[in-house]
Structures are given as C-alpha cells and as structure tokens.
Design a protein that fits this description.
The structure is a homodimer of 228-residue chains. The first copy, chain A, is an all-alpha fold and 228 residues long. Helix content of chain A is 75%, strand content 0%. Chain A has 12 helices and no strands. Chain A has helices at 3-10, 14-24, 34-55, 62-69, 73-76, 83-106, 112-129, 131-140, 146-173, 181-197, 199-204, 209-224. The longest helix of chain A has 28 residues, at 146-173. Chain A binds a DNA duplex (30 and 30 nucleotides) through helix 5.
DNA sequence: CAAGAAAAAACGAACGTTCGTTAGATTTTT
DNA sequence: AAAAATCTAACGAACGTTCGTTTTTTCTTG
C-alpha cells in the first residue's frame, strides 16, 4: 500500500478529528454550533501544533496563539478551560486515533510476515499523515500531569505490544526464528519514531515514507526470518 | 568492554566537566576561585538537569532552581549571564564530550566489524554514563537559538557519520555486503537514542547496557554481513 | 598569631514584563 | 430583538534579571 492509498482510506482530516473532539468535550467548549466550533478548533489546534513544535508548548504564550490563530485572547477561552486542558485534549485525541487505526490495520487474516509489514507500514504512514501531532505527543509528554502521563506510557506500551504479539505469533507458527519479541518490538518502535522525530533529516535526503517502511521491514525480517 | 571498565577509563566526573566549563567561560562567571566555582557549578548543573528532565527547561523557573541547588537567586547569576546561556553552556559541553570520546574510541587499528562494535558500545556507554545530559540534549534542542540549533544538528550528523564511515569502509573492504551506509547509520542512531530516551522502559525490563549493546550490534551485523 | 581591612561571594528585596485568566462590552448571527 | 460569539481591557501572580547590602573568606600588619 502506498502512502496516498493509506491517506485516502483512513480519512484523517483535521475537520473530522475536531468534530470528534467537539462532541467529546461539549462541557468545556462554550460555543454551540458545530460548524463554528470545528472551524475554530482546526484553527487553534493547527496553530498550537505549529508553535509548540517550534518552541515547545510551555514556551508558547496564549497571546502568541491568539495571533497565530487570528483569534482574541478571550475568544480562545471559549474553546478550552485552561492552557493545560488544551494540551491534554490534543494528546488524548492522538492516542485514540493511533489506537483505533493500528488495531484496525492488524486485524486481518494474514500470515505473521504480512501482518508485520502491515503494522510497520500503518504506524509509519499514520505518523507521516499526522507528523505534527506525533512530534507533539513525544516532545510534550513530560509536560502532562501525573494522570495523563500514565496514559502516555500506556499508549507507548500498547503499540509496542501490537508488534511483539505479531512476532510471538510468528515464532509460535515457526515462520520466525527464535528471538526476543519484546526487544525486537522495542527496536522497531525506535526506528519508527525516528521518522517523525527527525523528519528534517529524511526530507533533506529525499527518503520517501514508502522507502523507509521497506527499510525497516527488511531490517527486521533479516533478523528474525528462519532460514528455510 | 564492560560499562564499568568504560566508566573507569573515560573518567567523566561531574567535577572534571565543570572545571572545563569554568576555564572556557571565565568571562561569564563572576566568581574567581576554582574550588568554589566547581562546587557550585556541579550543584547548579545537576539541579538544572534534574528539574529540566522532569518538567522541561523552559518550565523550570530560576526560583525553583535556586531552591533545588540551595543557592540564592542573585547567587545563581554569578555563574551565568542569563537563563538562556545556562542552557547553551550545558548543551555545548555535551557536544564536546561526545565528540571527543567517540573520536578517541574509533581511532583504533581494527577491522570494520570490531570498529563498529566499539563505536556502538562507546556511544551507548557514554549515553549511559551521562544519561541526564543526553536526555537533556535531545529534549531541549528546540529551545536553543538559531546558532546553537545548527550546532545541535551538526553534532547529530557528526556522530552519524562516524557510523556511516565505518560501514562504508567495511563495504569497500568487502567484509560488509552492499547496502546504504547512511541509512544504516541512521537506524543505528535511532536504536542508540532509544536507550536514553526510554530509560524507564529498559530499567523496568532489567535490560543491562551491555546486553543492549550486544542486541544493537547483532541486529545491525545480521543486515550487513556478507555470507562468506 | 590575633585583629582588622580588603576582597570575594552570597544574599534577597524590588524592578519592569509577561504570563494565564476573567469579566463586561461589543459585534455578529439567528 | 434575542441569542450567540467575539473582543478588549484589566487582574494578580510569577517570570527573568538587577543591584545595593550583608556575610564570608582572604590578606595584611602589628
């Protein structure tokens, strides 16, 4: 599957995401009409990701955010109750999307090798489609409260387990050689993360997301494939 | 080489590092006597790393830093000219140490495979010996000024090149199969970084730094070793 | 070797800004 | 005209930074 096909299939438009957020946080959002809310949430979240990913969420002031999103200070507060809640909402929505998309992707009837390829590709394409979000999740995780930080760790371990489950299944079925599936899953995650954390490097080198998916998959397979 | 042997050899005591910083930044430090400066710099930098790695450098106030380091607000300003300079000094020192240690480690007369193992091990052990520093470099890079950010990127590419050079040499000598050395070096870096970025995960799983070095080396070698 | 002067270091109150947040007035939409 | 949405101005708190003072250390001298 190419990245374009993936993008068409999952339909991760900012509008859709913001509509979901609206209906899940009606009590926090003082504006009533969906169309107005979605338009402004798209604006606010995009501006937040843009500013945060340059200078960090904490260093971004609400006055900057107001300027960047062409809204007033008071206007912003119709869409969240505090700066911290703005951070929480963006993070939580990210975990939800990641979880849903990945679960859906690996829920196929295929042999472990195909499943592994599907999972690697899906995770990578997802992080490409939502690059600013993924970068944000990673870099701002420490600014979350205790409770939210636990969710971040849970999310990390959840996606890792998707990979280790596939690897363990492959070992059980004999198509993967004996190895440590948790460690291998951890390495896969590390390589996947590099794509969105060091986006500048791969852009500069003109590495496409499809090519990177191939590289990671082959790099992994060469280590776990049985020789028969 | 075990981690303990490495630690003994490189002698990366906080005191030594701070003494270097003192002599390289005498104009910024208003206190004159080495013993006093070193004692307080150790205090200040440790406190800075401790606080920053929990909540981020920007979110750390100088009042918190004063409390954590048991110094006064005014006292702190005898050891740096601004909060931003404090950040710069810590970062720069880190690049210098990394560069020196790595260059020294790979400057050996050995075949590419041994060199690769030495480089991976040295980078990993170094990041373990200076875990708070490395975490700090990574997470706070975006808070640097334009100039300092370029140095951060240069440092990233420099260490990557150490690996790609070894891989290219191995290809030229025929002991490594044909592959993309820059891409492989990038993957190695990604896996190395995971060690200090996700320290909690490996601690929890009781993975030793020696074991992780083995894993990364084998994972890489399995991909590039010729079959003869 | 004690004592007081000089130098060095540490201190903490205060400055001007900027922060997140709120409330009331104003504009836009229904 | 009523309701909804947006804006502006202002608040107290907290920020980084400075500076005059106090404390500690070092040096000088009888």
């Amino acid at each position: 599957m190419t990245f374009e096909e993936f993008s068409d299939r999952v339909r991760l438009s900012m509008e859709d995401i913001c509509r979901d957020i609206f209906y899940e946080n009606r009590e926090a959002i003082k504006v009533k009409k969906e169309a107005v809310v979605v338009k402004n949430l798209v604006n606010i979240y995009n501006a937040t990701l843009r500013l945060s990913n340059v200078k960090g969420f904490h260093a971004m002031s609400l006055r900057e955010l107001a300027r960047e999103s062409s809204m007033s200070l008071g206007g912003l507060y119709s869409y969240f109750t505090s700066k911290e809640q703005l951070l929480d909402i963006i993070q939580q929505q990210g975990y939800r999307i990641t979880r849903d998309i990945l679960a859906e992707t690996v829920d196929i009837d295929a042999d472990p090798e195909e499943k592994l390829k599907a999972a690697i590709t899906a995770h990578l394409y997802l992080s490409e489609a939502m690059q600013p979000w993924f970068y944000f999740f990673y870099m701002e995780a420490k600014n979350l409260g205790r409770e939210e930080q636990k969710k971040a760790i849970a999310s990390e371990l959840y996606t890792e387990q998707i990979f280790s489950d596939i690897l363990a299944q492959g070992m059980a079925e004999g198509c993967f050689a004996n190895h440590d599936p948790v460690m291998t899953a951890s390495l896969i995650k590390a390589m996947l993360q590099d794509w969105y954390l060091k986006r500048w490097k791969y852009s500069r080198r003109k590495v496409t997301v499809e090519a990177y998916a191939e590289v990671i998959f082959n790099f992994t397979i060469n280590n776990i494939k049985t020789n028969n």
